[in-house]
Amino acid sequence: MRAIALRSTLDARVRMLQARFRAIAAGPMRDLPLNHPGLPVEAIGFEPDAADPDWALGVLLTPWCMNLVRLPCLADAATLAVGHKASRTVGDGDVTFIGAFDEAIGGYETCSLFSPMQAFADASSARDTAREVLAELRRPVVAAPPAASERPAAPSRRGFLFGLRGA
């Protein structure tokens, strides 16, 4: 039941994030030369984080940047202070996020992927890149093989032939 409630809250928070950045794009960012006129504001692939399901991970695409965003599922969750950095484990690596806050959204954490966005031909290529980044980060972690000292000793040829371990 909690997972369903968190999912519903997360969906609402992602819509709020997208709406807020659309308002920013239409307002203070509208006429800045770093904007790519062919790119929309879009929240892509937000899903609960496997390592911490109270947080969601996704990409925020805007005409001026593409950011990896950690968004708490609940608006009143404790987040990094604005401008403070922290390393978070994502998939099999660590990513440095910076704390951010917006009155409409609350606290969240962001990691810049691209800025400015002129390298993207169109919205489709930017979306594809965002999805590829998320797929790579969400790839299952592959366990490292055991160290040589942890592996059982290979039997000698004689031991192998006669079923003796370590002989």
Work out the helix count: 3
Major sheet: order of its strands?
A: 1-2-3-6-5-4
CATH level 1 class label = Alpha Beta
Instruction: Give the CATH architecture.
Output: 2-Layer Sandwich
Q: Distance N terminus to C terminus?
A: 57 Å
N-to-C SSE string, H for helix and E for strand: HEEEEEEHH
How many strands in all? 6
Shape: globular
Strand content: 25-35%
Number of domains: 1
- SSE class: alpha+beta
The level of helicity is: 25-40%
The CATH homologous superfamily is called [NiFe]-hydrogenase assembly chaperone, HybE
CATH fold-level assignment:
Yope Regulator, Chain: A
Tell me what you see in this structure.
There is one protein chain. The protein is α+β, with helices and mostly antiparallel strands and 167 residues long. It has one domain: Yope Regulator, Chain: A (2-Layer Sandwich). It is built from 3 helices and 6 strands. The chain has helices at residues 2-26, 123-137, 157-162; strands at 42-48, 55-61, 66-72, 85-90, 93-102, 106-114. It has a 6-stranded antiparallel beta sheet, sandwiched between helices. The protein is globular, with a radius of gyration of 22 Å. It starts with a helix and ends in a 5-residue tail after the last helix. The mean pLDDT is 87. Pfam families: NiFe-hyd_HybE. This is [NiFe] hydrogenase assembly HybE family chaperone. It comes from Sphaerotilus mobilis.
